[in-house]
Amino acid sequence: MNRLFGSSGAKAPKPTLNGAISNIDTRISSIDVKLASLNAELTGYQTKLAKMRDGPGKTALKQKALKVLQRRKQYEAQRDQLQSQVWNMEQAQTMQDNLKNTMVTIDALKSTNKALRKEYGKVDIDKIERLQDEMADLLDVGNEIQESLARSYDVPEDVDEAELDAELEALGQEVEFEREMGGSEALPSFMQDEVPDFIDEAPSTAGKVKEAAG
Fold first, then answer.
1. Transmembrane residues, as ranges (predicted)?
2. Torsions phi, psi of 155, nearest 5?
3. pLDDT for the residue 4
4. CB within 8 A of 191, min separation 6: which ones?
């Protein structure tokens, strides 16, 4: 029976806002074409009326112009209604899109929150604090070691140059005195090296005497 009457079992797709907006835009475009034609016709009437004298011909032409003007106003009213419908549907479409985006954002936040709880559940705060304490102790030990290594020995910073000159002059006098007493090849006491017990013969001092004399 369905084949005889040309009926099909397929269901028509549900209307959508985008489809409705597209249909109305098509109707608005059609009205705009008609309005352009009416405006051109009115312009022609106005041009003719401006050149005609008063009389039955001008009155008849004026009636035609008034009818065209009335039709134009009707089309303009229809266009305004259709544009209002499109505006309302676009606002509804925008709200629907915003709602979809909001739902996607909420789902993403839920998933992220769940993942964060799972990961943070593996973290032991006490262990982290103990690790921080151990690191602080190690840093303190390292600083103490560095301070100990960088510590300077007790070396006098302020040395009296007069005392150094006096001591140097005394050493020179000692050298001269020991030379006079022991001969020209004798070394001063402060330049003599002690001979170790395992050496049978003392080293030759001639080279050292020459160096001292030089």
1. none
2. -105, 125
3. 52
4. 208, 212
